[in-house]
Design a protein that fits this description.
By secondary structure, the protein is mainly beta. The chain has a single domain, classed as Pectate Lyase C-like. It is built from 2 helices and 47 strands. It has a 16-stranded parallel beta sheet with strand order 2-1-3-6-9-12-15-18-21-24-27-31-35-38-41-44. A 14-stranded parallel beta sheet has the order 5-8-11-14-17-20-23-26-29-33-37-40-43-46. A 13-stranded parallel beta sheet has the order 4-7-10-13-16-19-22-25-28-32-36-39-42, with no helix packed on it.
């Protein structure tokens, strides 16, 4: 009885607690159609004639769906929005002279300056009179992103015929969100202007960027270039992933200046006019792995090239692993000014050497002014000059467990001239290492070497 009575009192004494709730609203979806002529573009029906009108009217978090059509706009997006093209509408950046701006100013299809903006499903193309943008007096860029924000999502767009495709910069703060460039097609972004001929160009800082599943073709300079390390002062570029993309018939596929802790992997690179992948100085902790690179360097360049072309500092702690390089125009893997790095498990076949006028040309792997590296377990075959070449300025390298055979395809040895022609292993350095070189050789397989003693398993 007492327990039942106490329970009743407890129920009768209960008072619900009411708290003031925060102001909330349902996220809205806006529709843009270039046939919506004269509509109000307000919250009553959320229909707009231009993308910019919808952006201005929408609130952060809203979605804007853009129907098929051609939109001659430079769309400025300063709030978190998802802007989605339906049936791939075209955004044609407007020549800034038509907007009473100074001639030569950049015209962006979209310029993004807020966190977590999504742009997907558009054709972004400079439709000048002759179809390639060259009649415009200014630069046209498909998409630009501010270096004050991050978390951009650029998905499934077709970006064609601009000066360059994406000007990709992000915040470099520790709290930066992941930015994704995924599933896009970049073609022939070569119109006149600054940084012409690039698909993705960055020089103002970048952090936590994933570039995956894109298709690149026909850029005259570089498909993916992070050039901030060459700026004055240099900018931070860290946590960049370039993975599972296809590259066809451009200049370089990938070019890094001063990039840290990043990865270029599982890409398919074919018929690049210049180097397939290039690290151009001051790169630290970059991994290049499992890429397939066929017929790179058509104009006399290499499959993977490491250098310091601007004098910004050597590359270090680089891992080059598991790549397949076939028929490079110059050399398969050409390393200069690179230290404390590992080249492991790569296959290099058929490097051509262009005109063979430089010792570093025509080799499977070349080491030039590069020290304290490990060259391990690579397969080097049918290259024009040497399988492995080490110049006189490369010291302290460990070269082990490689298989190098049937090289010297264009440089046969003259039996009457000692040291002539190509070799499976060639080392020009002199010191107290293996066979009087400045490097150490262990467990290597091959047929010919200079000096004698670099091969431990002769076949």
């Amino acid at each position: 009885m007492t327990n039942r009575f106490q329970r009743k009192l407890t129920r009768r004494g209960y008072r619900p607690l009411f708290e003031q709730m925060e102001d909330r609203r349902l996220l809205a979806t806006w529709t843009v159609d270039d046939n919506f002529v004269g509509v109000g573009c307000d919250s009553s029906d959320r229909r707009c004639e231009t993308i910019q009108d919808a952006v201005d009217a929408a609130r952060g978090g809203d979605t804007i769906k853009v129907k098929a059509g051609t939109y001659n706009e430079n769309v400025d997006v300063g709030k978190k929005l998802t802007i989605q093209g339906l049936n791939q509408p075209t955004v044609d950046p407007v020549d800034t002279s038509a907007l009473a701006l100074s001639d030569g100013a950049t015209a962006y299809g979209f310029f993004l300056h807020a966190n977590d903006i999504v742009i997907k499903g558009f054709n972004i193309q400079d439709n000048s009179a002759n179809g390639d943008g060259s009649s415009d007096a200014d630069n046209t860029v498909g998409i630009g992103t501010s270096n004050q924000f991050s978390g951009y999502k650029i998905l499934n767009n077709r970006i064609v015929g601009n000066t360059f495709g994406i000007y990709l910069n992000t915040s470099v703060s520790n709290g930066a969100h992941f930015t994704e460039v995924k599933g896009n097609t970049f073609y022939s972004n070569n119109s006149p202007g600054a940084a012409s001929g690039n698909a993705i160009y960055s020089d103002q800082g970048a952090r936590k960027i994933r570039i995956t599943g894109n298709h690149f073709r026909g850029q005259d300079n570089v498909d993916v270039i992070f050039a901030g390390g060459g700026a004055v002062p240099p900018t931070l570029q860290i946590g960049i992933t370039v993975k599972n993309n296809t590259f066809q018939s451009s200049g370089d596929a990938v070019d890094f200046f001063g990039v840290q802790n990043s990865e270029v992997s599982n890409n398919d690179i074919r018929a690049s006019n210049f180097n397939g992948i290039e690290l151009n100085g001051a790169n630290i902790g970059v991994t290049i792995k499992n890429n397939t690179i066929k017929n790179p360097g058509i104009q006399g360049f290499s499959g993977i090239r490491l250098n310091d072309s601007l004098g910004i500092g050597p590359n270090s702690n680089i891992l080059i692993q598991g790549n397949t390089i076939q028929n490079a125009g110059l050399t398969g893997i050409r390393m200069a000014f690179t230290n404390n790095s590992v080249v492991r498990g790569n296959t290099v076949v058929g490097s051509k050497g262009f005109d063979l006028s430089v010792d570093g040309w025509g080799n499977g792997i070349s080491l030039e002014s590069s020290n304290s590296n490990i060259i391990d377990g690579n397969v080097l075959k049918l290259n024009a000059r040497h399988g492995l070449f080490v110049d006189g300025s490369s010291t302290g390298n460990l070269i082990k467990n490689n298989f190098s055979l049937n090289n010297a395809q264009r440089t046969p040895r003259d039996p009457n001239v000692p040291g002539s022609g190509g070799f499976d292993y060639f080392d020009a350095s002199v010191d107290g290492g293996t066979a009087g070189t400045a490097n150490k050789y262990k467990g290597n397989t091959g047929h010919s070497d200079n000096p004698h003693g670099l091969i431990q398993h002769r076949v």
